[in-house]
Amino acid sequence: MDLQNLLEDIVGTVQPLLGQGAPADYIPSLAAVDTQQFGISVATSDGDVFASGDADVPFSIQSISKVYALALVLAGDGDRIWKRVFREPSGNPFNSLVQLEHEDGIPRNPFINAGALVVTDRLLSIVGSSPSPVRELLRQESGNNSIDADPVVAASEAANSHRNASLAHFLASYGNLENPVDSVLEAYIDQCALEMSCTDLALASRFLANNGLRGNGTALLSPSQTKRVNAVMLTCGTYDAAGEFAYRVGLPGKSGVGGGIVAVVPNKCTICVWSPGLGRSGNSLAGVAALDEFTTRTGWSIF
Ligand code: GLU
User: Fold this and answer.
1) Which residue numbers are catalytic?
2) Between 1.20.58.340, 3.40.50.720, 3.30.1360.120, 3.40.710.10, what CATH number should domain 3-298 receive?
């Protein structure tokens, strides 16, 4: 398999899609990002990296950060988080308030905003916020020590975080937050605002393809925990389009409204794609098409 050639082919295949879709506009600073950009990187289990297009351009990882927050909480605390968050697809928008009321303050899964706020809350209790544990993990696993939150994106989200603030207050009203609402929101917004390239993210996610083993050979998660994180990515990782994503791509994946998607081929590689034009469900249009092409051409899928 000539992965480098394949990635270059894929960059050509998605060209007609660039500029279609729209960047997220509810966080004003994301709305200004050029939708003509597309990058793809593959990091293999044994450490090789293949990349093409805008693979080295940093972008806002947004909800992709929720995977690493969950991994750190499972690593620190085992299964306890599952008493406070379910793990079923939500069938509702990622920032829905209605479902939380119906389900008495237990979010449907850790990748909708309500669930991620609970996970972030637990992470704050386990390790605190300084330095940001998600940022530290991503720096260590990618080998890029300059990874940081973009203060402009964080400020833009903070100034427009009425829905997330409502969700956090709601969770607190049900006794499902351990820390003050403001501290949880701040840590959540900060990890969403991390800026990374496709290559950084593909490298930093390799523990998900490697049975939980970090780059230095130590275990972040057990093989069983890794299986479970991947399972939740498959069923809940791509908003309200996880069924369509599984159908087209056939891999666990997590997307963010910055236009990035990380996908995992267990025991083989991680793939990160990025293009800011989003489809109706909030997933990168060109990103999903690229992953579809990748798994169709390689046959690397979990099915
Ligand atoms: N920071 C974003 C929010 O809370 C993340 C959303 C996403 O990428 O899905 O709205």
Assistant:
1) 63, 66, 188, 239, 257
2) 3.40.710.10
- Tens-digit pLDDT profile for residues 189-220: 999 999 999 999 999 999 999 999 999 999 99
Contacts of 179-183 with C-beta under 8 Å, sequence gap 24+, read 179/121, 179/124, 179/125, 183/124, 183/129
- Quote the ligand 1 centre to 44 CA distance (angstroms): 28
Give the single-character DSSP code of 47.
Answer: S
Residue showing tokens 């998660």: 221
pLDDT band of residue 128 (cuts 50, 70, 90) is confident
Any idea where the domains of the chain sit in the sequence? 3-298
256 CA to middle of ligand 1, Å? 7
Answer whether 274's CB lies under 8 Å from 253's CB. Answer: no
- The reported pTM is 0.97
Instruction: Give residues (CB < 6 A) around ligand 1.
Output: 62-63, 94-95, 113, 157, 164, 192, 256-257
